[in-house]
Amino acid sequence: MDRMEKQLEWVAKGQCKIDNVDTNLFFPERGSTLQVEEAKAVCAKCVVADECLDYALVNYIKYGIWGGTSERQRRALRRTRNVPPPMYYDPVFDNWVLSDNRRYTKVD
Questions:
Q1: CA-based nearest residue to 68, from 6, 3, 14, 13
Q2: pTM score
Q3: Which pLDDT score, from 0 to 100, does residue 70 have?
């Protein structure tokens, strides 16, 4: 099992996987309150909802219901938990860059 598979091991334990829920349920159209509530009800029974939420927060997943939270709820949680923005490596400048373009110099 590689590192990525290990990090996502929790997915198989998700209530959405166990109940074989259509993933479209977790990506409701704007204003689909009933669909949002149905998705959150699945998450409320889930033993890995916290891992799902953490995954969405750390990876800045903007769309859908993750760990029983909406996009708006996750934005608020990122602010209160001080979750840093995602980073990517810029080989031209040999350093890491936050998505808001602040640079972090490589430390050897």
A1: 14
A2: 0.73
A3: 94
